[in-house]
Amino acid sequence: MSPRFGIAFGGGGARGLAHIHVIEALDELGIRPVAIAGSSIGAIMGAGMAAGMSGREIREYAHSVLSDRTQVASRMWRARPGTLAEALEGGLRVTQFNVERILKAFLPDAVPATFEELEIPLKVTATDFFGHKLAVFNEGDLHSALAASAAIPAVFRPVVRDGTMLIDGGIYNPVPFDLIKRDADIVVAIDVVGVPTEVGRRRPSSVDLMFGATQLMMQSIIDNKLRQCRPDILIRPPVSRFRALDFLKIDAVMAETAAVKDEVKHAIEAVLRTRHEPQPT
Fold first, then answer.
1. d(CA 159, CA 223)
2. How high is the pLDDT of residue 207?
């Protein structure tokens, strides 16, 4: 019997575009996971895969949208507040975008409205802000769960679902491989959090420091998790030179991380060989 694969896609904003290489590698190996977990951009990529999109389809869609500044601007315009009352809801917050509206403007039509319509089971992480705990969604409304998982503090407004205020899933679980350990025989985890770098050696702005501090916090969480349990395969694409909101640099991100596809294939082949080798008696 062939082993069952589970895939955990981590959060990292635009750095998560590297997940596309992983999905393409799985497609080329003929591997269809039985379980997917995702945080933030990883939840969005995971939803595309769970909906039945191929890596090639996700790549083509992402490139068609993000490589065209005019189209990005048009979609952002469509995501603007519908009324002045909505714009001023909760006070004037010009730096906080409505992530639910933005997600609606950018998600491909192939991603359905509910978890139940997906072809592969998906678990999406978010952070319960006032409950001080991880929130995991796997049923009901899919779009609000994805929006909550991607609600980066200070950039996007929190998402309220069932009376609970939710923010970025990466705050509590940046690479949620632990959520699918019992659902699969082989778990592949993709960490695209990255770390602050000295590229350009300029003095970091307050925004750079905020995002960099978040990266360090998330890496600390990941390191602690890895001491407790490990996925069968952990892939860390070279994404640190990119910022969380560098979506318009899709070509550069994809080129910089192209080797990930072969890395995933070799890692899976190595794990399968180990499992097929006779064990010493």
1. 28
2. 84
Helix 55-66 and helix 69-78, axial crossing angle in degrees, nearest 10: 90
The Cα–Cα gap between 99 and 89 comes to: 14
For 14-47, how does the pLDDT look when each residue is reduced to its tens digit (9 = 90+)? Answer: 999 999 999 999 999 999 999 999 999 999 999 9
Has 40 been annotated as catalytic? Answer: yes
> In the block, which residue shows the tokens 């010009």?
94
Q: Are 161 and 141 in contact (CB under 8 A)?
A: yes
Residue in the structure block whose two tokens are 């491989």: 177
Poorest-pLDDT segment among 12-16, 36-40, 54-58, 102-106: 102-106
Give the C-alpha separation, 220 to 143, whole Å. 29
Q: Which two tokens stand for residue 107?
A: 């998600």
Closest CA to 180 of 25, 15, 46: 46
Distance, CA of 194 to CA of 239 (rounded, Å)? 6
Locate tokens 């969005």: which residue?
44
The first and second tokens of residue 26, run together, are 């799985």
Q: Among the options 39, 144, 149, 168, which is catalytic? A: 168
d(CA 196, CA 270) in angstroms, rounded, equals 31
Phi/psi at 31 (5° precision): -95, 125
